[in-house]
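Entry 14. Structure prediction run on the chain below.
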Amino acid sequence: MKRGPTSHIYFSQRLRLHYVDWGNVEAPTLLMIHGGRDHCRNWDWVANELMDDYHIIAPDLRGHGDSDWLIGGAYTTIDYVYDIAQLMRHSGADEVAIVSHSMGGGVALAYAGLYPEAVTKVVSIEGMGPSPSSFGDSKPGHERLHEWVENLRDLSGRAPKRYKSLEDAFQRMQRANPHLSEEQARHLTIHGSNQNEDGTYSWKFDNYMRAWAPIGLSPNQTYSLYRRITSPTLLVRGGESWASDPIEDGRIEYFQNAESVAIANAGHWVHHDQLDEFLGIIKPFLAR
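Output returned:
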């Protein structure tokens, strides 16, 4: 790899949030938003290939990486969007292109719909959530609230998993995604874990973010944000993943200017599983 990024701090809703900056500040700004239970350094391989052409900023979302955990409330797309808005204000960038993954992809699309004039391009890797066909089984509000309360209570008594060594954590990372090379898995483990006082290791993310809040944007509100996105949008999915095809499920019709691509031999982490092909697709897209 080339030179690595520098670490920085900004504040949002009194939370101390972390991001990395890859330099080249005179170039156009490219924001990279990670997914759930991940961290900003998962983008290192992509950033290494794009850093000569862009000023890359990659945040640790609240509850992830080296950012503060939430005390009270819930982890929602709305709050993540606010954090990104604060980061953009902090950085002074008037315009930004975005590359994003999973939960971060949903945040990126919502942000692009909220501030269409400030976003030039969006790449969202499996960032649209479950297929619309699953919405027909949505539970009444009181049932979702009950489930959330019970889930939080369960998580409150659930201590973060402790691994006896970094090697044990690394092996867990490899089992979670067989596509990862040994070098990738070690890198993600090192940057995604902390050593505890007793010498064991735990993942950095807050266990409470596992409890999906029963509040936030409804599907219709989400689609209305999609309609407001004016920038070219690239929807990427892995051919071996659970994500549905936005062309087949109809969601691509909510966008003004979107295209969809599936990458073979890739699961949910497309940018890890097929890095070269992923770069071969997004480089010309971002350069248009």
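The chain has one domain: 6-159+217-287.
Filed with the rest of this week's runs.
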